[in-house]
Amino acid sequence: MRGLNSNKTQIRNGVFTEIARLAYEGGTAKQLDDLPYKILPGELSTYRDSIFLERAIVGQRLRAAMGMSVHDASVNSNVSDGVDESMIEEKYYEPPLIDVIKFACNACPEKLVTVTDACQGCLEHPCIEVCPKKAIRIKHGRSFIDYDKCIRCGKCVEACHYHAIIKFERPCAKVCGMNAIKSDEYGRAEIIHDKCVSCGMCLVNCPFSAIVDKGQIFQTIKAIQSDTPVYAILAPAVAGQFEGLPSNKIRSAFQALGFKNVVEVAVGADLCTIEEAKDFLEEVPAKIPFMATSCCPAWAQMINRDFPDQADKISMALTPMVLTARLLKKHRPNSKIAFIGPCAAKKLEASRKSVKSYVDFVLTFEEVAGMFNAKGIDFNEIPVDSEPLNEASADGRGFATSGGVAAAVQNYIQLIDPNREIKLAKAEGLAECKKMMIMAKSGKYNGYLLEGMACPGGCIAGAGTLLPINKASQQLKASCKEASFTQAADTTYASWIPDLENFEKTSKKLSDNKE
Q1: How large is the C-alpha radius of gyration of the chain?
Q2: Can you give the pLDDT at residue 5?
Q3: Quick check: 217 and 19 in contact, CB under 8 A?
Q4: Which of 238, 266, 344, 478 would bridge 396 by S-S if both were Cys, CB 3.0 to 4.6 A apart?
């Protein structure tokens, strides 16, 4: 759970911290083999049956954090095997992005309806009466389920007055809106990569921390240590993510990590707002019956995979990450750019050929927290920024929450065409996004702008966030109030959309900023 300092969170943080420390201190691949002993010292296990198993799992997490593939238990290997190839800045992760450490998986049942000790053996026995397959009978004074007959419909669960019957479901599979998780021959979770869109909800919800995504922490730091300036572009969801780091110290804090400077991705969100609004006005309903937002890569990938005949309904606007990176790279062509955000799917987006030349690295807030730990940065000692981050609108920052993208586009359309009605629909979580697309395909949303967010709650609930969703929502609202202007229409960069011909005059403000 986000915001909970659990054993799972501590281990993940330890892995990210040690990988960052290894990079900052110029460590070697061979030192990776010692890190499981540093992260889990001593002789006795804390979390599992064996300290050896615990360290083996941590070792695979370290490999993933380096961008390397995880090994299974049948492979006789060291943590450091093959890692030399990843200890350079010009290295993307080895696909697939998200995978299962098989020997860390608890082999949770896929779906199971079971009677608990709370059963009272009541007179009414509503569970028996509602079961369509007559799979329940009384045995030793309690309800008993015959699993050869049970179809796991859950009617008995709903009927029990004592809530004594529960429907148990594998946590990772339950949250996977793509139905991309199955069981292997040993009952362990296995990702069907042809279906997976890398939203990361499975890794967030696995209580055993058996699912990992691959990272670029080491590679980013090596780039920072080179002669090439590396800029951090921060997603709007950054608001409040790093405890003790106020908004007026963000630039200085990231410069303390070694980044040259910081730019808000909300700047790109403002540009995306304008572009999507123009797309909508030109395309709907003249050319297409409805339009889907383009910002969430997992949502867009879901449409492409499950609704290929509807892919032309996705807005052609580039995502805020790419727009911000293009804006900055045109002005700083010899620089490298690291997107810092809440999203695992952004790593997948940045690996595409069309995006690689703009976005060099993608790190989550959770991974960057490890960098702050490795550097021993005390936010109390960080100076207040000489230049606050204030180049984006409140609407642009609002992209980080569910409904924020659609609201920003609606606000812009109402400015330029007050008489135009724009109908909105939104969905959170890929299962709900699918339902919305099914309805849209059937004609229920003609004339609508559809906003899809793979993560329930929006980007503030992404797989790489640090705050509980309710607190992140409050922090985002405060960030929106701090914005120097409200709507995307007032952005300094409005004339730069989407080509680069007019870039020089619209990017002047960036060149005037102090480095």
Answers
A1: 25
A2: 86
A3: yes
A4: 266
